[in-house]
Structure to design on (136 residues):
């Protein structure tokens, strides 16, 4: 299960898939009482009852900051990352290093950030050429 959890002071994504990781995550979320619950014992069971499991976990999110959750997940071997806030994407080292956005200069409005390719550029690319009609 991927938990994208966001509250006023906590915004992170935890990738909780393996059974042993799920149990550790449920414990750090303060719901150790759910670890041995048969409704969450397998991937299929968790999927069936995902709404109630996420509701129980979401109750714990506001209790810590994003940094506290990420540190806790790291100590427990739970893959997690902070969520990118688009308002601050221009400050994110990964985004800048990968060239996902670039600083540009508008002739009258000044500096702004943009993606290297516009959606229009991609939409007009002829990368799929149908060779024959599927209609008979």
């Amino acid at each position: 299960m991927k938990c994208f959890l966001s509250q006023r002071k906590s915004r992170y994504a935890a990738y909780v898939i393996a059974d042993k990781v799920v149990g550790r995550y449920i414990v750090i979320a303060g719901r150790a009482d759910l670890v041995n619950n048969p409704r969450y014992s397998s991937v299929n069971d968790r999927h069936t009852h995902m709404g109630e499991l996420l509701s129980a976990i979401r109750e714990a999110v506001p209790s810590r900051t994003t940094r506290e959750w990420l540190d806790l997940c790291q100590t427990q071997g739970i893959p997690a990352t902070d969520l990118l806030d688009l308002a601050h994407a221009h400050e994110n080292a990964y985004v800048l290093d990968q060239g996902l956005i670039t600083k540009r200069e508008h002739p009258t409005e000044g500096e702004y950030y943009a993606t290297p390719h516009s959606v229009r550029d991609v939409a007009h690319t002829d990368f799929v050429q149908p060779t024959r009609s599927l209609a008979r």
Summary: Confidence is low (pLDDT under 50) at residues 121-136.
